[in-house]
Design brief:
The protein contains 17 helices and twelve strands. The protein has 446 residues and is of the alpha/beta class. The protein is globular and about 65 Å long. The structure holds glutamic acid.
Length: 446
């Protein structure tokens, strides 16, 4: 395989799909050497087959807003790869959602899910529906209209959606209610991230952020460091940022920045329980702004138009959106002495930013390893649903710890460099790829 040739072919077939092409290039560059050392992969055309989604469903979603106006959005489900298990991955509701974004996310999901140790294939879906400023009733009607189309394509053993940006417990509730009504099927396991009284797993809401911090702990331990007393800047204020802020604070770190599309909140004294709870309120308000945090807590200050990366910190955790940390941000972080960056969002850093961190020799880990605790706990939710039982928080947390440790080990195994450092990007990509490639190879040309 020659990466540039594969990419040229892909660019010709999918012109302008920048996020998708970026995600594929990152993986191919990481695996090129290993791939070429395995002629059986080349012979079975694994890469050519793996970069294309198995199938994509696109559908119109029409609903009525509170003013009685008819609104039309586009809905999608990208079923990317089922080599190691049923399709699994979140739904994203955001105005910028398009096929390129969902293909990048589905592609990433395939490798991420492979890393979790659980049998889950990769998928992603969503809509260009913008939840900002919508009432709860509008969100419900949209979710119902979305499920009216999606329900035929998902199922407990075929495809299990969950949340992502713009889709949390509230949306999963509305989606699940409508699914059951349409399908007349009452198994609890067709969606994950459910409420605790109707099949949800304890710790699923926290799991992405908690798992990320467990991964960071392993990364730091490997480098002879600890998280206690360190300052952390994180972007976003939604579910993922909330879980990360909560666990970081529990582990003795100080979360000194959170951010939103409107700007950054500098929080020099770190988080309290009240502040952490307030992050959930902010998200539920559907306003998509972080400024009210500084109005409620006077020891914090809000600066409009600035990112979290303008705040001097030891550790930076992108927790919001793809490409939210670019080369200029990376340089600013380095100039301020940041020595560890872990992507909690999917593809949170641009390739130039990653290159900047790697050239500077600081610790860097990619989203598909760092944030895999979220989907892994979804996998644990599926298991509980299929067994018709609920595990305790302690049981789920132990399993999550084990999974994050295994992912870290896999990164070390496949990413250790001759100079003794660990390239976590390579490690995660190769570990995920090897598992999916092996599974595809053993199941023939399909
Ligand atoms: N959307 C999350 C992710 O990017 C979670 C997916 C899931 O739980 O299925 O991994």
């Amino acid at each position: 395989m020659n990466v540039n040739n594969v990419m040229a072919d892909l660019e010709r077939k999918h012109p302008g799909e920048s996020e998708y092409l970026q995600a594929v290039r990152e993986v191919l560059e990481s695996i090129e050497e290993v791939y070429n050392a395995h002629p059986e992969f080349e012979k079975a055309k694994i890469v050519e087959r793996m970069v294309e989604p198995d199938r994509i469903f696109t559908f119109r979603v029409t609903w009525v807003d509170d003013a009685g106006e008819i609104q039309t959005n586009i809905g999608y489900r990208v079923q990317f790869n089922s080599a190691i298990g049923p399709y699994k991955g979140g739904l994203r509701f955001h105005k910028a959602v398009n096929p390129s974004m969902l293909k990048f996310l589905g592609f990433e999901q395939t490798f991420k899910n492979a890393l979790t140790t659980l049998p889950m294939g990769g998928a992603k879906g969503g809509s260009d529906f913008d939840p900002t400023g919508k009432s709860d009733a509008e969100i419900m009607r949209f979710c119902q209209a979305f499920m009216l189309e999606l329900w035929r394509n998902i199922g407990v053993d075929t495809d299990v959606p969950a949340g992502d940006v713009g889709v949390g417990g509230r949306e999963i509730g509305f989606l699940n209610g409508m699914y059951q009504k349409l399908a007349r099927e009452y198994h609890t396991g067709v969606l994950t991230g459910k409420g605790m009284t109707w099949g949800g797993s304890i710790l699923r809401p926290e799991a992405t952020g908690f798992g990320a911090l467990y991964f960071v702990e392993h990364m730091l331990a490997k480098a002879g460091k600890s998280i206690e007393g360190k300052t952390i800047a994180l972007s976003g204020f939604g579910n993922v940022a909330w879980g990360a802020a909560k666990k970081a604070t529990e582990l003795g770190a100080k979360v000194i920045a959170i951010s939103g599309p409107d700007g950054v909140v500098y929080n020099p004294n770190g988080m309290t329980d009240e502040k952490i709870d307030y992050m959930l309120e902010l998200r539920a308000s559907n306003r998509n702004i972080v400024a009210p945090f500084a109005e409620k807590f006077p020891d914090a200050t809000f600066t409009p138009g600035k990112k979290a990366w303008s705040v001097k910190c030891d550790i930076a955790l992108p927790c919001a959106f793809q490409n939210e940390l670019n080369e200029a941000d990376a340089k600013e972080l380095l100039a301020n002495g940041t020595w560890c960056v872990a992507e909690v969002s999917n593809m949170g850093c641009t390739p130039e930013a990653i290159h900047t961190f790697q050239s500077a020799g600081i610790l860097f880990a990619p989203g598909k390893a760092v944030n895999a605790g979220g989907v892994a706990t979804s996998g644990l939710e599926m298991t509980q649903n299929c067994m018709h039982i609920s595990w305790s928080g302690k049981e789920v947390d132990e399993k999550l710890h084990f999974i994050m440790e295994s992912i870290h080990e896999a990164c070390v195994r496949f990413g250790s460099q001759p100079d003794g450092t660990i390239n976590y990007v390579k490690g995660a990509n190769i570990a995920g790829f090897m598992k999916v490639a092996q599974a595809m190879l053993e199941q023939g040309i399909i």
